[in-house]
Design goal:
The chain is an alpha/beta fold and about 325 residues long. It has helices at about 1-25, 30-40, 55-70, 150-170, 190-200, 235-245, 265-270, 295-315; strands spanning about 80-85, 95-110, 120-125, 175-185, 205-215, 225-230, 250-255, 270-275. The protein has one domain (about 1-315): Zn peptidases (Aminopeptidase, 3-Layer(aba) Sandwich), CATH 3.40.630. It is about 35% helix and about 15% strand. Helix 4 packs across helix 8. This is Peptidase M28.
Length: about 325
C-alpha cells in the first residue's frame, strides 16, 4: 500500500514537472513586467507606502487594478479588506494616531468540482516604513528620508502580480481555488495578516496552504532562494526539491524555521505556511533599498519557481493538512 502511494506521488510529480516545463517554454514570467511593478511600487511618488498615507492607498489601488485586469473575483463585493492600526509618535513624521489601511484580496476559482472548495493562499505585504523616523523599524532613524522598500517588499508584490498574470494566461486553471492577498501593516507586527486570519472570507479548514513572498528581489550569484516551512504540509520538502529540476535556482529548503513574515500568522493558526526570500542585505530597512539594486532577472526566476510550486500544490491530489514543525 505504501509502495503504491509513493508510486502515485512520484507519477504526480512527473506530471507536474511536464506541465510546468511546458508552461515555462510557452510563456514564462517576464523580467520586464517584474521590473515595471517594482519600479512603480518603490517610486518616490508613493513615499514608502506607510499605512494610512496616500502612497499606501495608491499602492493598494495599483494592486487592485491588476486583480481586476486578470480576472480575480471579490469577497463580499470588495477587493479591499479594511482595518485600523495604531501608529506610534515619530514614525513617518506623524503624531500618535490610529489610521485606516487595507489588505487587497481576490480569488481564482479552482477547476475541479470537489477541490475548488479548498484554498491555497499566496501573498506578499505591500507596506513599508514611509519616511522612517523615531519608533520605526528603520536602521537609520536619525534621517528623515523615503524608505522605498524596493526589495522589502515591492519585490514580493511584483512577484505576486507576475504570478497572477501567468495564471490568467494558463489554459487549464489549477484544481484548487487560489486566494491572492497583499497585506498592509506587516512592518508594524504582521497586523494585516493577523487581521486576515482572524477574519477569513472562507472557512478556516478550507485553507490548506499559504505561500508568502517577502524580499525576493536580491537573488545572489549562487542563485539561492530560501524557504522556511516546507515541511508544514505533506511531502512539501520533496516537492520543493523536485521543482528544482526545472529551475536554474538553488533552493535552500527548511522543513521548519518558519521565519518572521506574514506566513507566520497562518502557521500560528494551524495552517500550513511557507515563506520565500532571497536573503538579507545592508540596505534592509534603510532609504537605500532602491530599484537600482534589484536583480530583475533573478526576481522573475524566483517568481517562476514559486508559480510552479503554487500550481503543483493547487493540483496535488493528496490530502493537504497541517504539520507542526515546532
Amino acid at each position: 500500500m505504501l509502495f503504491l502511494t509513493n508510486l502515485k506521488y512520484q507519477l504526480f510529480f512527473i506530471s507536474v514537472l511536464f506541465f510546468n516545463s511546458t508552461i515555462n517554454a510557452q510563456n514564462g514570467i517576464n523580467a520586464k513586467i517584474f521590473y515595471k511593478h517594482d519600479k512603480y511600487l518603490s517610486s518616490d511618488k508613493l513615499e514608502g507606502r506607510f499605512p494610512g498615507t496616500k502612497g499606501n492607498n495608491e499602492a493598494a489601488a495599483y494592486i487592485k487594478k491588476y486583480y481586476k485586469k486578470y480576472g480575480l473575483k471579490k469577497f463580499d463585493n470588495n477587493f479591499y479588506q479594511p482595518f485600523t492600526l495604531f501608529v506610534k509618535e515619530g514614525i513617518n513624521k506623524m503624531k500618535s494616531d490610529s489610521v485606516s489601511t487595507q489588505n487587497v484580496v481576490g480569488y481564482l476559482v479552482g477547476s475541479d468540482e470537489k477541490l475548488k472548495n479548498e484554498y491555497i493562499v499566496i501573498g506578499a505585504h505591500y507596506d513599508h516604513w514611509g519616511w522612517g523616523g523615531q519608533n520605526s523599524g528603520s536602521k537609520k532613524k536619525e534621517a528623515f528620508a523615503i524608505h522605498n522598500g524596493a526589495d522589502d517588499n515591492a519585490s514580493g508584490v511584483s512577484a505576486l502580480l507576475c504570478i497572477l498574470q501567468e495564471l490568467s494566461n494558463a489554459k487549464v486553471k489549477p484544481k484548487r481555488s487560489i486566494i491572492f492577498i497583499s497585506f498592509s501593516g506587516e512592518e508594524e507586527g504582521l497586523l494585516g495578516s493577523k487581521y486576515f486570519v482572524s477574519h477569513l472570507p472562507v472557512q478556516k479548514d478550507a485553507v490548506r496552504v499559504m505561500l508568502n513572498m517577502d524580499m525576493v528581489g536580491r537573488l545572489n550569484e549562487e542563485k539561492q532562494i530560501y524557504m522556511g516551512g516546507a515541511g508544514t504540509f505533506p511531502n512539501g520538502v520533496e516537492l520543493m526539491k523536485k521543482l528544482d529540476e526545472i529551475s536554474t535556482l538553488n533552493p535552500v529548503i527548511h522543513a521548519g524555521e518558519v521565519g518572521g513574515s506574514d506566513h507566520v500568522s497562518f502557521y500560528k493558526a494551524g495552517i500550513s505556511a511557507v515563506g520565500f526570500h532571497t536573503g538579507g542585505h545592508p540596505q534592509y530597512h534603510t532609504p537605500e533599498d532602491d530599484i537600482d539594486l534589484i536583480n530583475i532577472q533573478g526576481g522573475a526566476l524566483v517568481a517562476q519557481y514559486i508559480y510552479n510550486a503554487l500550481v503543483a500544490i493547487a493540483n496535488d491530489p493528496q490530502q493537504l493538512y497541517f504539520i507542526n514543525q515546532d
